Amino acid sequence: MTISHHVGGDLLLAYGAGTLDEATSILVATHLALCPPCRAELALAEVIGGVMMESATTGTAPAESLPDPAIVGAGHDGERHGPAAVLSAQPGSFVLPQPLRDYAGCDAAQLPWRTMGGGVRQVALKTRGSGATARLLSIGAGKRVPEHGHRGAELTLVLAGALYDRDTWYRRGDVDAADSSVVHRPAAGPERDCICLAVTDAPLKFPALIPRLLQPFFGI
């Protein structure tokens, strides 16, 4: 599995610092479970941060203590590295990687999916705080979600199948990012249903009447 679309470096740093809202933190942890390069990047950032803090208290020049990035990244296999680390995805038939599966309490097949119409189902995840919201979506093969814009940021992490959005294919582990400048209508690939984790920090904007009328019922 090759991941081509990652979470941004700013999100990785905020995740490592523990400053993300719960919904976004779940998405980043799930992406990290699937993405060894991002786990290595986070580990390096944590080591550098620790060295900088130590140099501030001891007066040691940071360059004298900084690690070789190649050494930090080599062999990084998802073991825990401080409080911000996550477990890597374990091989098997699970759709949801372990951090998300632990949070949801089961794998995708056992979730209480709620039909939204048009071949789309969702499960809203209960998260603490009043910031972003997280939901799992199941989009039928070849189906599209309703056209929508954004009042804020939207991150969509593909967990199964494929998602086509703005001339780009996203597959397992890839993150599709959109902001208030984007109006789109992502579609699942034709081979199988697409399951993804979507996080938004503000309600979506639907140009069509029916999605707008249903929006309060589905909390989107």
What does this 3D model show about the protein?
This protein has seven helices and eleven strands. The chain has two domains: 9-95, Arc Repressor Mutant, subunit A, CATH 1.10.10; 102-218, Jelly Rolls. It has a six-stranded antiparallel β-sheet, covered by helices on one side. It has helices at residues 9-17, 22-34, 36-58, 62-65, 69-73, 98-104, 209-218, and strands at 114-117, 120-125, 133-139, 149-150, 154-160, 162-165, 168-171, 175-178, 187-188, 194-200, 204-205. Helix content is 32%, strand content 22%. The chain is globular, with a radius of gyration of 19 Å.
User: How much of the polypeptide forms β-strand, as a percent range?
Assistant: 15-25%
The percent range for helix content is: 25-40%
Largest sheet: 6 strands, antiparallel
CA-based shape? globular
Q: What is the CATH third-level topology name of the largest domain?
A: Jelly Rolls
Question: In the CATH hierarchy, what is the architecture of the largest domain at level 2?
Answer: Sandwich
SSE topology sketch:
Elements: H1 9-17, H2 22-34, H3 36-58, H4 62-65, H5 69-73, H6 98-104, E1 114-117, E2 120-125, E3 133-139, E4 149-150, E5 154-160, E6 162-165, E7 168-171, E8 175-178, E9 187-188, E10 194-200, E11 204-205, H7 209-218
Antiparallel strand pairs: 1-2, 2-3, 3-10, 4-11, 5-8, 5-10, 6-7, 6-9
